[in-house]
TrEMBL record:
The chain crosses the membrane at residues 35-55, 133-160, 172-195, 215-236, 257-280, 286-308, 320-339. This is Amino acid transporter transmembrane domain-containing protein. GO terms for biological process: amino acid transport. Signal peptide: none annotated. The lineage of its organism: Eukaryota, Viridiplantae, Streptophyta, Embryophyta, Tracheophyta. It holds the Pfam family Aa_trans. It comes from the Eukaryota. InterPro entries: AA_transpt_TM (IPR013057).
Length: 345
């Protein structure tokens, strides 16, 4: 939906394409729409980035137990590396780091699945020991929030499309990627639950035994996420730097000053997110809350709202009804998920 909206606006203004979420918000609802959209994007991407810091910190703390360092210490150790990576300006330049991160993640997930299968079948496992359908429906909102959080990179959609050499292939590539990742998540979750049952932790790598392969998995995932984090920060930097350019546009020395401010702002963002991550008590609850609120707004509410606004008069009745269902479902999920998380805490 978001790509269709961007293409519609781009066709209407050939001299200046609407490339960002803020542009879509402005064309749909004026200045308030731009600011609201950009606030949601910034907060959502910040929340997802904080989750990355927490995941890395908890895994490194588990790997290096007995060293006398807290989880927050490992988080702050990442700050210089992430600041350096955040200074890389374009997504295309970050592609090699992203590929390396993907390799680390695939290898690590493969080892985790192998460990899960060995544990499940090595203990005389039977499917009767696992509950397929639970009577505890109170946990469904938490699970749904975690499921939506798994796709927290939704805010990168337009940025990734803009970075493609042939944008026409993006919808097909997006659908293939989405389907493939969904299957991987299902397989990963199924194997983890089959191996550990009700003892499965919110970060499944913390369930693994302390042997060389498990430690390699945890370190590999940490390295992968460390190289992925700068990509998550891209929309935040894009919005902040757009505001800086507006402020400095009347300055004759603006080019040099813009570069200095860009580096400083990116460093401040990384440090601020690391500080926030050091106060997160539990990864699972935090991730579910982010998925239930911010990710739901990005994934369901915003696309349906923009699509209805920009295409409303030309849409058939069934399409309007579908968009309305997506919009209302996203709002309900966001409010109920927030309530459930707060009550649960």
């Amino acid at each position: 939906m978001m790509v269709m909206c961007r293409e519609k606006l781009a066709s209407e203004e050939p001299l200046g394409e609407s490339n960002t979420y803020g542009d879509l918000g402005y064309r749909s609802f004026g200045t308030p729409g731009r600011y609201l959209t950009e606030v949601i994007i910034v907060v959502a991407q910040c929340a997802g980035s904080v989750a990355y810091f927490v995941f890395i910190g908890q895994n490194l703390y588990s790997v290096f137990q007995g060293q006398g360092l807290s989880m927050a210490s490992y988080i702050f150790m990442l700050v210089p590396v992430e600041i350096g990576l955040s200074w890389i300006g374009s997504l295309s330049a970050l592609a090699p780091f992203s590929i390396f991160a993907d390799v680390c993640n695939v290898v690590a997930m493969g080892i985790v699945v192998k460990e899960d299968i060995q544990r499940a079948f090595g203990k005389g496992f039977s499917f009767g020991q696992r509950t397929m359908i639970t009577s505890n429906i109170g946990g469904l909102p938490f699970a749904a929030g975690m499921a939506v959080f798994c796709f927290e990179g939704f805010g990168m959609t337009l940025a990734l499309e803009n970075s493609m050499q042939d944008r026409r292939k993006f919808p097909i590539l997006l659908a293939q990627t989405f389907g493939g990742i969904t299957l991987v998540y299902i397989l990963f979750g199924f194997c983890g639950y089959m191996a550990f049952g009700e003892e499965t932790r919110d970060i499944v790598t913390l369930n693994l035994p302390r042997n060389w392969s498990s430690l390699a998995v945890q370190v590999g995932l940490c390295v992968g996420l460390a190289f992925t984090l700068p990509i998550m920060l891209h929309p935040i930097n894009e919005i902040f730097e757009g505001k800086l350019k507006i402020i400095l546009r009347n300055n004759n020395d603006s080019t040099g000053l813009e570069n200095i401010c860009m580096y400083i702002s990116r460093a401040i963002v990384v440090v601020g997110l690391a500080v926030l991550a050091s106060f997160v008590p539990e990864f699972g609850v935090y991730a579910s809350f982010v998925g239930s609120t911010l990710c739901a707004m990005l994934s369901f509410v915003m696309p349906a709202t923009f699509h209805l606004k920009l295409f409303g008069s030309s849409l058939p009745i069934w399409q309007k009804a579908l968009d309305s269902i997506v919009l209302l479902s996203g709002l309900f999920f966001a409010f109920y998920g927030t309530y459930n998380t707060i009550v649960g805490v």
